[in-house]
Specification:
Largest sheet: 2 strands, antiparallel
Distance between the termini: 29 Å
Shape: globular
Number of strands: 2
Order of helices and strands: HHEEHHHHH
Strand order of the largest sheet: 1-2
Radius of gyration: 18 Å
Length: about 190
């Protein structure tokens, strides 16, 4: 449950940032601390939470779908923390010195978002493979619902075309034609 407490704090911070209720430098510090707390949470997990990467896709394999979802909530929380850092630093740019620690953090946050997004996209084929449904039926599975919800959250942090391409490429490569119908359903629900 600690993961969701941290995620809730980040959502509240994002609201404060969007409404300009807190100074940007305070939001950066809060987001950095939250990101560090998330990383500490991940390193404290038992070995049963471990996953491994298959080269085809690439694709992450988990012990169970539940673990895949929790890891993706973790990644989403880290993406949100790093997005808060970037947006808050962008508001401070005119006042920043070239040697400012926030400038370095800004660049690191962009790299973190790219990596975490790819990790999310690499984990989705695993969830869809476990919940195979006929291509002619409406695949209202837990994997579909989770994916649509997760991507809708990411849509607020990145552009739609990049998101659609980046999340569907690994799944299409791993799942092939059976993924086409599911991809269409998800795309219709991204707004």
């Amino acid at each position: 449950m600690r993961l969701f407490t941290i995620l809730g704090t980040l959502v509240n911070s994002r609201v404060l940032a969007n409404q300009s209720f807190s100074p940007p430098d305070q939001l950066v510090v809060l987001a950095i601390k939250s990101d560090q707390t998330l990383q500490n949470w991940a390193t404290s997990l038992p070995a049963s939470w471990a996953y491994h990467e298959l080269p085809k896709g690439p694709q992450y394999i988990y012990q169970d779908v539940w673990y895949a979802r929790m890891w993706n909530y973790f990644r989403l929380a880290r993406i949100l923390a790093n997005r808060i850092i970037i947006d808050s630093c962008d508001m401070m740019v005119p006042a920043m010195l070239p040697s400012d620690i926030f400038k370095l953090q800004h660049a690191q946050s962009y790299a973190a978002i790219t990596l975490l997004s790819q990790e999310i996209y690499s984990s989705l084929p695993f969830m869809f493979k476990l919940e195979q449904v006929p291509a002619t039926s409406l695949p209202l599975s837990a994997a579909l619902f989770f994916t649509a919800t997760l991507l809708q959250s990411l849509l607020g942090l990145t552009d739609r075309d990049t998101l659609i391409h980046d999340w569907s490429s690994p799944a299409s490569e791993v799942l092939g034609e059976s993924f086409t119908f599911t991809k269409g359903i998800v795309m219709q629900n991204l707004r």
